[in-house]
Design a protein that fits this description.
Elements lengths: L15 E6 L15 H10 L4 E7 L22 H11 L6 E4 L4 H6 L14 E2 L16 E2 L5 H17 L4 E5 L10 H9 L7 H26 L4 E4 L17 E4 L10 H10 L5 E6 L14 H13 L3 E7 L8 H17 L12 E4 L4 H13 L5 E3 L10 E4 L7 H12 L3 E4 L33
Parallel strand pairs: 1-2, 1-10, 2-3, 3-6, 6-7, 8-9, 9-10, 11-12, 11-13, 13-14
Antiparallel strand pairs: 4-5
Helix pairs in contact: 1-2, 1-9, 4-6, 8-9
Length: about 475
């Protein structure tokens, strides 16, 4: 099976960014009718913003410009995307284009053959009850997943090409990528067979799932960079510490954490240290709101925004705060006054953070167990001990000590690497089951003891 690889170019990223959400139902009248260039520019100046993601197509499946390929929002009467891009460029603000991939309600409704299917051929969805009656209340965040293959793939590539031809493109931001799990639609079943893969084997289905996404990414990148070689490209849903590596197809890693919603404030430091090892610029994404996307009425205090932005810069990462554009297209100036309090400070320090290299001499070995890795990272942070991530195959000589956080993570090759590291003068702190072989039968490292078996009790204490 051939891996598809087209390395995305390296770019320098502005540090004061906004992700402007705009998922707008067809039931809302007069979409974009109050957009005003001057009011838009006033908001961006108030916020000290130099980058804002603007919408070409949303989760409802509607486009916000006069598309000949997709479907323009039925109550939109203007080229909202084009006016937003022009207004940004007039004041020196970059405006990458947002495009949904995995969720597109109108496309799922009109082309059910484009949806992701499970092994039984049923649609794969989030919070969707296919037996619900029309009058039943629909839960929030209800979407069917779509597969980047066949006719849907061709639609997305054609619309990407159309956008590249219509506008001065700064970048693309593709959303809801790689998160549905393997697909068993007719296109994917045929693709697996063509690759000599057995769809009945989970490992083969996962291999094809990754390959299918890589091919989609490579095709998008080829279209984009043919006419806009310096454009940024990001596929959201791909920046998992434990998932497949999609970084070669992206110009940057974006870490969407929303600390007041999921993960808390401890999640971002470990992720930033991990993705530093990928060698690409990074962006951290929080929100101007307290809960999650779609919360129009929430306002974090400027001090909270300033703290979050300062932490991003301190970890060598550009800043991004999520906002919601009103369906009529009018910016909320109070939001940008708040964000401006944070970004005024970022302007003073942004030259000292993004692109910087961690200098910690303590390494945290990623074990593959989130509870162990995150728990160990939390203990180090609570002890005011800075750390960098250590990985198999990496040069470990910069570290005085490497911590193995508890999860079983070693094979013969990585164990030999750690033994060589110790022989060269390094030290190890081994927690939990980190020194055990995958079969949990013996130690792969010399810990000064032999392995007898698992503990009899859930909690053990050493005094």
């Amino acid at each position: 099976m051939r891996q598809v690889l087209e390395e995305a170019p390296m770019v320098k990223l502005p540090a004061r960014q906004i992700h402007l959400d705009f998922h707008t139902s067809e039931l809302i009248p007069d979409v974009g009718s109050r957009f005003d260039k001057r009011q838009w520019q006033e908001a961006l100046r108030l916020g000290h913003v130099n980058w804002i993601n603007v919408f070409a197509k949303c989760h409802h499946g509607w486009s916000y410009y006069p598309t000949r390929v997709g479907n323009m929002h039925p109550t939109l009467k203007r080229d909202l995307l084009g006016e937003q891009i022009a207004a940004c460029h007039e004041i020196g603000v970059r405006a990458p284009i947002y495009y949904t991939v995995g969720w597109s309600a109108n496309d799922a409704l009109t082309h059910p053959e484009w949806t992701v299917r499970d092994r039984q051929g049923k649609p794969v969805a989030r919070n969707v009850d296919f037996s619900a009656r029309p009058e039943d209340k629909r839960p929030g965040g209800s979407w069917q997943f779509l597969c980047p293959s066949g006719g849907y793939r061709e639609l997305m590539l054609a619309q990407t090409r159309e956008l590249c031809e219509r506008y001065e493109v700064d970048g693309f931001w593709y959303d809801i990528c790689t998160i549905s799990g393997p697909c068993f639609c007719p296109n994917c079943l045929a693709g697996m067979a063509a690759e000599g893969l057995d769809a009945a084997r989970d490992e083969d289905a996962q291999r094809y799932f990754i390959l299918n996404w890589q091919r989609f990414m490579a095709a998008c990148n080829e279209i984009i960079h043919a006419s806009h070689p310096q454009a940024t490209v990001f596929y959201n849903g791909t920046t998992s510490i434990y998932g497949p590596d999609y970084m070669p197809w992206m110009t940057q890693a974006e870490l969407e954490d929303l600390p007041t919603t999921w993960g808390g404030y401890d999640k971002f430091p470990l992720r930033s240290r991990f993705f530093f090892t990928k060698g690409k610029p990074m962006i951290a994404m929080s929100g101007k709101f307290h809960t999650s996307w779609g919360e129009f009425g929430g306002f974090k205090h400027p001090d909270a925004l300033r703290f979050e932005a300062a932490a991003m810069i301190a970890y060598g990462v550009a800043c991004n705060f999520g906002d919601q554009l009103h369906p009529l297209g009018e910016m909320d100036l109070a939001t940008y006054r708040n964000i401006g309090e944070a970004y005024k400070y970022v302007e003073q320090i942004e030259d000292y953070g993004p692109g910087g290299e961690p200098c910690a001499n303590l390494g945290l070995w990623i074990t593959g167990s989130n509870s162990d890795d995150q728990g160990t990272a939390n203990m180090l942070m609570e002890s005011q001990l800075d750390f960098a991530v250590a990985l198999p195959g990496q040069d470990l000589s910069r570290f005085e000590t490497v911590v193995l956080g508890g999860g079983r993570c070693l094979d013969e090759t990585s164990a030999a690497q750690l033994r060589d590291y110790v022989a060269g003068g390094g030290s190890l702190l081994v927690l939990g089951e980190s020194a055990l072989d995958p079969a949990r039968e013996r130690f792969l490292l010399d810990v000064g003891a032999g392995y007898v078996g698992p503990a009899q009790y859930e909690l053990d204490y050493l005094v």
